[in-house]
Amino acid sequence: MHSLLDDYAHGNALRETNARLKLIFGLGAILLCVSSPTPIAPLFVAITMSLATLMLAKIPGRVYFRLLLVPLSFALLSAAVVAFMHGSGQTLFSVQLFGFDLGIREEGANLASLLIARTFGGMCSLFFIALTTPMIEIFATLQSLRIPQSVIELSMMIYRYIFVFLDQAAMIHSAQVMRLGDAGTKNSLTSFAMLSSVLFLRSWEQGERLIVAMDSRCYDGKLDLMEQTDGAKPRAILAVAIYLAAATAIAVLTRGVQLL
Amino acid sequence: MTIILETRDLSYSYGDGTKALEGVSISLEEGKKVALVGPNGAGKSTLMLMFNGILRPSRGDVLFRGQPLRYDAASLRSIRRAVGMVFQNSDDQLFAPTVYQDVAFGPSNLGYPAEKVKRYVGFALQYVGLSGYERRPPHHLSGGEKKRVAIAGILAMEPEVMILDEPTSNLDPASSEEIMEMLDELNLGGKTLIISTHDVDLAYRWADEVILMKEGGVVRRGTGQEVFGDVELIRDARLKLPIVVDLYCELVGRGIAGGSKPPKNVLELCDLLQSRGEGRAFVGAFGKIYICNVDEADWKHIRGLIEKNPAVFKGAMGTSAKVMAEKCGISIDFTYGVIDKCILKALIGKNSLIMTSGGMVDHALQRIKDYGQESGARIEVIRHSFFCDNTEILK
Q: What average pLDDT is seen over chain A?
């Protein structure tokens, strides 16, 4: 059927690496991207994160680039808007459109490039986490961070049933397409409304069955997490520390640099 | 025999007044394999949900070991521990994000210490042949594997009775045979089993007792031969005859077969035909049946035996034998109904090897011995004990 991010999270080459370390690596890089004043550090993060995902975690390149395409297209669109709308300084480029003067100025261009770099770096870091760390280990980490148990239990069940409903939604959708439910905008909209309402009812019923299933196994408020995996290897910790330090150094050292 | 579960005049109506069950009184013996059969809407699932207190009867009682069920929290906990239920749809049952968590759910809610939970989960997963699957999420499992995890989740609570609603629906034939064989193994270990099914062939050959339900009531109880021998009754209940019974009825009609009751399985049907002198009787020596216990066997010896005797048919009974055979790269001819298949082969002069473990070794020996006494066919059974490097010959 469909291959999901989750499938890669369970089957990549960094699966056994300590989850906390991977989270620190990814989240640290994201923080750095959003706080860096210039696009250089985020670009560095984007490139290194992509390399880590492709070379270390051995995620197939095609999958990875197709994933990146989605946020990248958003980033490019919004960057274009920002570039045209913003700023002062020297005009770098201008066109005449219906008698209006549309131009990109220096400040706008800088802001747009920063925007793209930050989005790109952040997304690469986020995909690194999503593609290498199964949800269940993120739950375990959340638990060790003292997030309330009920929140974690709920998230775990939501996570579990996402896949059940995904399958059901796919099946309902095929059943609709089979009978031309997608012919024309009006039909598509009606079909989508039906799909949503059926899915809602099904999830309600599933909830009731879930209660029966839990009750018949003596539910007493416990949904244990698996025990923690092995601690991080010192070498891996060192590598992550060096990487984050290097990225921070780049951000600090290039803070004054203007691209244009 | 002790009665483990009993219902007295059990009735149940849904909120809108629809009667799902009406005056059901049955008693189930400990250690039996029971199949509930009947058309859709006969009340099978409703009855099953009453056995562990999920549904509360509108009238009548459910008794576990002679004690009427009470519906306070503590009593419900103890009945649900003793009577485990496996749902028809595994996705309803597997709600935890990993296999380990799901199997651990029951034991940890029973308040076992962490170390004990871990031990029980390990045991249950090993029993169903899924050791090493602990960290997988359920949506990465096949239908058969999901069913096994669901069974493991119940096994980890050490129930006395296991109830399975349509255990083989939505499974491919090989997976469903493996599940049924696993249930046989559990039954040999002393568990009482209750299944509901639409598969009449399955109910006929598997169950010690068949309960035929229709419109919220029990129409007939008895052995498979008694219940399915009544052609009218089966038709009225919107079921069909098991293929063996159907064939038998037609053979009787043609005057080819006789006898007072239908044969239980293919083996008995073959014997019945042969006893009437139909078909060419096999002349020559019967084949031998080797039995080896995989728990104590040396796989080099088994491979040696197979290499020496390449014509041997290989059967694996039980999960651990199958897991071992796969690990050792031995291709298996029979994965279910192994003993009968091997007897059938022996009767036409072919040798076979049964790989199995634990209590099933004695079960296989007993079954072949019983068959020999009944039919007069002297099949040589050779039990291999590779550890002591001697071979007992049993007749």
A: 85
pTM here is 0.82
For residue B153, give the nearest of A6, A217, A224 by CB distance. A217
> CB pairs below 8 Å between A and B: how many?
100
Nearest to A93 by CA among A103, A107, A80: A103
CB-count exposure of residue B79 (10 Å: 0-12, 13-18, 19+)? buried
Task: At A224, list the tokens.
Answer: 């244990």
DSSP of B4-43, one letter per residue? EEEEEEEEEE-TTS-EEEEEEEEEEETT-EEEEE-STTSS
Task: Show residues of chain B in contact with A211, CB under 8 Å.
Answer: none
Mean pLDDT per 10-residue interval, chain B, length 395 residues: 92 87 93 93 91 91 93 90 92 88 90 91 92 88 93 94 92 88 90 94 93 93 91 89 91 82 86 69 76 77 76 85 82 85 88 85 87 83 60 42
Interface of B with A in 192-251 (CB under 8 A): none
Per-position b or e across B195-234, b if 16+ CB within 10 A of its CB: bbbbbbbbbbbbbebbbbbbebbbbbbeebbebbbbeeeb
**Contact in structure between B364 and B291 (CB atoms under 8 Å):** yes
Q: Where are the alpha helices (DSSP H) in chain A?
A: 5-11, 19-35, 40-51, 61-85, 106-132, 135-144, 149-178, 184-215, 234-253
Q: With left for phi above 0 and alpha for psi between -120 and 50, is residue B17 left, alpha or beta? A: left
Between residues 35 and 54 of chain B, which touch chain A (CB distance below 8 Å)?
49, 52, 54
Please answer whether residues B26 and B7 qualify as being in contact, where contact means their C-beta atoms are separated by less than 8 angstroms.
yes
| Nearest C-alpha neighbor of A255 from the set A35, A38, A32 | A38
Domain layout of chain A by residue ranges: 1-133+230-260, 147-226
